[in-house]
Amino acid sequence: MVMMMMFMMWSGEIRVTNAESLETALLNIETGQTIVLADGHYDLAKSEIRGVLATPSRPLTLRAENRGRAVLTGAPLVVDESRSIVLEGLRFEQVPRPGKAGAVLVKDSRGVVFQACTFDFDETNLTRADRRHWVVLQNSPETRIDHCDFYAKMTRNARLRIEHTSHRAVVTGNLFRATAYADGGNGFETIQLGTGEDQSYGVNLFAEVFGNYFYACDGEAEIISAKTSFNRIYRNTFLKCRGQVVLRMADHCEVFENFFLNDGVKEGVGGVRIHGNHNLITNNYFYKMTLPVFQTRWGDTDTRSGTREIRYRATHGTLVAHNTVFDTRAGIVDFGDGTESRVYPSMDWVFANNLWIARGRAFFDGTAGSGLAFHANLADQFDSNEAPLLNGNFSEAEIEVLAQHPLVADNHKVFRLAPGARGVDEAVILPFWNAVTDLDGVLRDGAPDIGADEVSSAGALRVPLTSKDVGPTVWKRDE
User: Fold this and answer.
1) Domain spans of the chain, in order of start
2) pLDDT (tens digit per residue) in 148-168
């Protein structure tokens, strides 16, 4: 009987109620259609959107009738050679495929949007040793991951992998839930911006990762691993995440206006590790870190020497400016030292207008190369008798040590400059870069303040995110 297909169609919308009707609808899709999935489980034998050339004004949309209640199981989703595809409010519970394919694969497409979706893939019969990516973008520019919920992941490989020429991806408003530590294992990143192959070829990705909430993302030492250049990571909150944001073979990236928060007890919680050239680390707030806030290492390869291999490059031309660090106990900057294989030092860093309050370890450690510059940095040690301020070859670093720190806690327990305190109106104006706004989005005036916060009667326009600020429950469709 023809009616066995069990779908209803009106005004460009197709309503499906089971796997069979969804698979049939996917075989007969047209530009501008919306496929509405009724509540229920869709155990799919095949789940592909292939060769659909929709447009931004008339996209193909797959939408849950009720957000999170249309559950896809069975065959992993593949979007291939398609344009302007929107997936909204769906819940993905497929078993991830081995290797690079993942449970959701977008390849050779453009303008694919995941909005208010939930990714909770079935890893019941898998182990930590199994390699399973979750969401993979291959050669798919302008993909948007918007207000989705990424559940805890157990297996090796990333929850979100953006590779090859998937330029201008946007990752915003998402919830990344807690993931168990892999006991020092490699390949458990939360987000990968590029691959080992990409870093070898010097790919410029232009990805934007902003407004996301990362809670206890402990998979490995790299929470976000950027092996591509020209990426921006900003206005995110990292709460008790064991690891760091890592720029690996990444040039011209920006990490700014993020909150890195810890309780001071959890080990292995750090800020930003840099291996690349001309990166900007600005306007960030770091609280109770237990790894060095900023970290690099001597390189076993160096673009200045004409080599670019899949290794760790020496770091040149980094700007660290207008950051506030409060009550960290693992040091501020660690440059590392040369070894038999790592012979290229990091050089030409600028530290300007930072406010550093720390305890228990030297602020600067390791051995840097030439060309370091310091401008208007203020520091205070809670327990100055425990460690020297400077180790390594930083004895001449220009850092003013205060007798008492100038910060007070606000209603969100963020420590900010007190009105009239040291640091207010004392920042230097750099000839090559200046902060227009502060951590909170407040405009800086003509005499800016030191640290991430600009004292203002306007108050904080931006505070640390929580799980209530991100994910599917707060996403709203543009009508």
Assistant:
1) 1-94, 108-257, 267-461
2) 999 988 888 889 999 878 999
Q: How far apart are CA 477 and CA 464, in angstroms?
A: 24
State the Cα–Cα distance between residues 334 and 246, nearest whole angstrom: 14
Strand positions, DSSP E, 216-323: 222-226, 232-234, 237-239, 243-248, 254-256, 259-261, 269-275, 280-282, 285-287, 294-295, 319-321
Query: Exposure of 479 by Cβ count < 10 A (0-12 exposed, 13-18 middle, 19+ buried)?
Result: exposed
Q: From CA 222, how far away is CA 311, in angstroms rounded?
A: 15
Name, in order, each residue with C-beta under 8 angstroms of 19's C-beta and a sequence gap of 6 or more.
42, 43, 44, 45, 74
pLDDT tens digit string along 298-348?
A: 887 776 655 555 567 889 999 999 999 999 989 899 998 887 778 888 999
What residues form DSSP beta bridges with 260?
Answer: 238, 286
pTM of the full structure = 0.94
What φ, ψ does residue 221 adopt, rounded to 5°? -70, -20
User: How far is Cα 53 from Cα 68, in angstroms, rounded to an integer?
Assistant: 27
Place of tokens 């904080």: 460
Query: Cα(346)–Cα(90) distance, rounded to whole angstroms?
Result: 46
